[in-house]
Specification:
By secondary structure, the protein is an alpha+beta fold. About 30% of the residues lie in helices and about 35% in strands. α1 runs antiparallel to α3 and α2 packs across α3.
């Protein structure tokens, strides 16, 4: 026959220890635990378990153990229950200490569990360093110290990318193209990965600026066709189109 434990209920507190919990705080937990249990079962202190803080009590009126169990569960689920204020006070103490708590019985089964603060979600933020070419139209050049900021608008996506410039000659070059021809800025810096898996600029720094050719493809190939011995002059439109697809890797 299994011997009955010499205690009936225990307040189990995880996340703190007896060596870190101040004596006055321990007394607060004991006082609120006593209020939660109530006086009907005439509970008395039955010891502390080492490790996590576990405060045990034994009810001298053992016939009312089941009554106390019902009182505990009502306090956790009914705003009007007699032990509700003690339950809320214990919840507040646990949250303040960053601890988790529960009331367990002599079989170490949980009778009630106190709600803990929600854990912050942890997202693995990935940042990589790289170099890239950023194309766009200059819509702003600003700065009051030795670093300027260029804002480039991508006409196709309407996205704006900010690029820092430490060379004032490059800043003036960009300012001269304000709202004009599209630029290509060679940058180095870092990019972040969003929760959706997209990469967005984090900190970009300009290394070089190049004004993009505004001529159409027809004009460019017309100029190429005018150059002797390139083969473009005698190439049909169909052959030229196929060659371009081959260069681009298209099938």
């Amino acid at each position: 026959m299994t011997r009955r434990a010499d205690w009936d209920f225990a307040l189990r507190i995880r996340g703190v220890s007896l060596s870190t919990l101040q004596l006055g705080r321990l007394a607060e937990y004991l006082g609120r635990f006593a209020d939660l249990l109530g006086d009907d079962g005439r509970p008395v202190f039955a010891g502390v378990v080492k490790g996590s803080v576990v405060l045990r009590v034994k009810e001298r009126n053992t016939r009312l153990v089941s009554t106390t169990r019902q009182r505990l569960r009502k306090a956790a689920n009914d705003d009007e229950a007699p032990g509700r204020s003690a339950y809320e006070r214990l919840t507040s103490l646990l949250r303040s200490d960053g601890a988790r708590g529960a009331v367990v019985d002599e079989k170490n089964d949980e009778v009630i569990v106190f709600p803990s603060l929600p854990q912050p979600s942890i997202s693995a933020e990935v940042v990589v360093a790289d170099v890239a070419d950023i194309d766009g139209v200059v819509v702003a050049v600003e700065g009051v110290d030795d670093t300027a900021h260029i804002r480039l608008l991508d006409p196709s996506t309407k996205a704006i990318t900010s690029v820092q410039v430490r060379d004032m000659a490059l800043a003036r070059q960009a300012a001269a193209c304000f709202r004009g021809a599209a630029l290509r800025i060679r940058v180095h810096g870092t990019w972040k990965r969003t929760p959706e898996g997209n990469w967005v600029p984090n900190s970009l720094y300009a290394d070089a600026i190049e004004q993009l050719d505004q001529r159409s493809a027809v004009e460019v190939f017309g100029d190429l066709g005018a150059i002797r011995h390139t083969g473009w002059a005698n190439m049909s439109k169909e052959d030229a189109s196929k060659l371009l697809d081959d260069i681009r890797g298209r099938e």
